[in-house]
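Before anything else, study the sequence and fold tokens given here and see whether the fold suits the sequence. Record follows:
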Amino acid sequence: MIRAILHVDMDAFFASVEQHDRPELAGKPVVVGHAGERGVVAAASYEVRRFGVRSAMPMSSALRLCPAAICMPPRMARYREVSAQVFAVFREITPLVQGLSVDEAFLDVTGSVQLLGDPPAIARRIKDEIRARTGLTASVGVATNKLVAKIASDLDKPDGLTVVPAERVREVLDPLSVRRLPGLGRKLGEKVEAAGLRTLRDLRTAPDAVLWPLFGRDTAHMRDRAAGIDERPVLTEVEDKSLSAEDTFPRDLQDPRDLDAKLCRLAEKACERLRRKGLMAGRVGVKIRCHDFATFTRQRSIAPPTQDGRAVRDVARELLCRWLAEHRGAKLRLLGVVLGELAPAAQLGLFATTAAGGGSERLDSALDQVRERFGSRALRRGNMLD
């Protein structure tokens, strides 16, 4: 049986929610994010995108491009509420729903066709139900695999519906820019274009001699992706690959003591999330962004895996200290702690947590309970104080 895969992507989700909840914003340039110097655009309405404003852009740059833009602070609780309504629509159509974020998902509707009609009809039904329940629009890509469906959903935004049958995959994909390929990334995309590969057809037909310097062992895989080949199933439960906590500072930080206090707080927050999910981490990393937006990561394995805040903090401290020693006087605008190689705590050996945690599990548990009841700032370790 030929698979029927949908990729549903809400249009400018956060900004659209703000425009829906405040009708006076309809048709106006809206950006969602904090307006300070360190603010970043979380979402941009289509009215403001015409000025070149995009998500993840510094808010200061967005307001220079469009001085008339209306800046709305994020309301994550509200976005999650609307997201729940959207995902309820998905699950009424099929149990095979793979959420990618609060505003997009893959749906495998192969088993729903006999009851609900062909895939385009199902896509229209989803769009209509979302509009009826939330007042918002979604764009949908319909294809026989996840990759092509995701590309298709972005071809006719906003409020689009693009169907790419199996026999038309090359016809649709070949003329598209290589930048349309999900996961390529900006820097790699620039290298690919610099090698003379402008379209997906160029990438699909290029010889190994051209592709290998760009992709190495992934050469065959990237050629398949450019051809629209993708056998991945829609996964209803995707395991966490990593977990992180990061903070953008109101002003650049340079004093190692200030940075250490921030790092300890982030390590504690990341471990708190780890324990809440019942996970252990086997790798600890730090994310460092300088005042000029240059971004660095440093990481190393930790054995045995742990969820102990003190153990994670010590590794993160070591990584940051080494980086600071190599970049003396650096001014940082962002710092983060990233935990990887996650595994369920129940899968660890009998003595693993004792070795890793050094007997601090009860303290972590007590801290978690106090914060759960009285708030995240109710009780903190001394080294987390500014």
Observations:
- The radius of gyration is 23 Å.
- Residues 256-276 form the longest helix (21 residues).
